[in-house]
Specification:
single chain; alpha/beta; OB fold (Dihydrolipoamide Acetyltransferase, E2P); five-stranded parallel beta sheet; 30% helix; elongated
């Protein structure tokens, strides 16, 4: 059973959506909220798998609400304004439904949810915040007002910047308040390799490997970044990558 919470300031919109969701017996609506503050409370208390989220609400918007969550469930946006579509995909929502919601579009969105859930089922359960993350897991990254859901396999590099880490994916490089050591504990070492004191690289996104000074290596990533592998880590890297 997939637990869902509906967050929308219009009671009628919530009622209409609940009616439409009756055609999907696998989805159970466990809670409702009329604004972002109530929404955060519902998500923290009910731990839903899915949130139907309105964007324009009194006080904080749906985007504001997402940026305040520590760990976000799957999100399907529902809104009357299609100019938000681009931003909805910036935060990597599952889908984006225009009101009034059409049954066929809702069915498409639920189908996307099932695909996402299947992918997650194939990866190890996250359980607690200390467990290992697989490359198929999505992580919530927020930097100031911007937020993204990013699949770990799309992140090519973590770079230490003081107490922060810069996260490289696509053309984005947001900063998160996490040390490289803390990140290293939770990343799969078969995919993410600690190249040196300042960098963790995604082994799957290395474009080129060249010999470098003092017996080290120079890695070129798909984004064009060049990262030096320290001499000590080069030994480990060669062991990992050899047959």
């Amino acid at each position: 059973m997939i637990k869902a919470v509906l967050i929308d300031d219009e009671r009628l919109a919530r009622t209409e959506l609940k009616k439409l969701l009756m055609d999907f017996p696998e989805i159970e609506v466990v809670g409702e909220a009329a604004n972002a503050t109530e929404g955060i409370e519902s998500i923290e208390n009910l731990q839903p798998d899915l949130v139907f989220l309105d964007i324009q609400m009194p006080g904080k918007t749906g985007f504001d609400m997402l940026s305040e969550l520590e760990k976000a469930p799957h999100v399907i946006f529902t809104t009357a304004y299609d100019e938000y579509a681009l931003k909805a995909f910036e935060v990597n929502a599952l889908d984006y439904l225009l009101k009034p919601v059409e049954p066929k579009r809702l069915a498409d969105a639920i189908h996307k949810l099932h695909i996402a859930e299947e992918k997650e089922a194939m990866s190890p359960a996250i359980g607690t915040n200390r467990s290992l993350l697989s490359e198929n897991d999505q992580v919530f990254v927020k930097d100031g007002e911007r937020c993204w859901f990013v699949r770990l396999s799309d992140i090519r590099l973590f770079e230490s910047v003081g107490n922060y880490a810069k996260v490289f994916f696509g053309a984005n490089k947001p900063l998160i308040l996490k040390s490289l050591n803390a990140l290293e504990e939770r990343l799969d070492e078969k995919v993410f390799f600690r190249a040196n004191r300042k960098h963790i690289v995604n082994l799957r996104l290395i474009e080129k490997i060249e010999p470098y000074f003092n017996g080290g290596l120079l890695l070129e990533l798909k984004g064009g970044e060049k990262i030096e592998v320290s001499r000590r880590q080069t030994v480990k890297f060669k062991e990992m990558m050899s047959l």
